[in-house]
């Protein structure tokens, strides 16, 4: 389902004494926020971004009106959200929270296989957790398996690897 605001990641610490924060992005790229001017705290308070610098798998961010380590410390563990309309999301890429709860169908049979309940990041590729009743099935989120994703309608079509959804 398409959402107006998307969780972009979490502030995990401070950096230096002038108010910079260490931000763990929940995306494939630590530079994701580079073109975004405003992010939002969980209470919808806006934070205007002055600069974003990738630093390994995190980003160092400076915000307006966050001018000391004490100011930055107050933001620790806060999840930052972005307006979806501000996010430049390439075709074929999705925010995990938009995928969750999507119904997953078999391409060949049209059968409802379950609901996407979680996504694990493994390095090589994401692994999607599909819940059907009490059972959970794991599928690689790779081009040969994922046929189509329709986040507007909460529908995913896959070509499951042989044997994954066999009940026996």
Q: Layout of SSEs?
A:
Elements: E1 5-15, E2 20-25, E3 38-40, E4 46-55, E5 58-63, H1 69-73, E6 79-83, H2 96-99, E7 103-106, E8 112-121, E9 126-132, E10 135-140, E11 146-150, E12 155-158
Parallel strand pairs: 7-12
Antiparallel strand pairs: 1-2, 1-6, 2-5, 3-4, 4-5, 7-8, 8-9, 9-10, 11-12
Question: What would your notes on this structure say?
Answer:
- The protein is mainly beta.
- Helix content is 5%, strand content 46%.
- The model has no long low-confidence stretch (mean pLDDT 90).
Report low-confidence residues grouped into runs of 5 or more: none
Q: How do the strands line up in the largest sheet?
A: 3-4-5-2-1-6
Which word captures the global form? elongated
Q: Quick one: CATH class of the largest domain?
A: Mainly Beta
Please give the domain count. Answer: 2
How many strand elements? Answer: 12
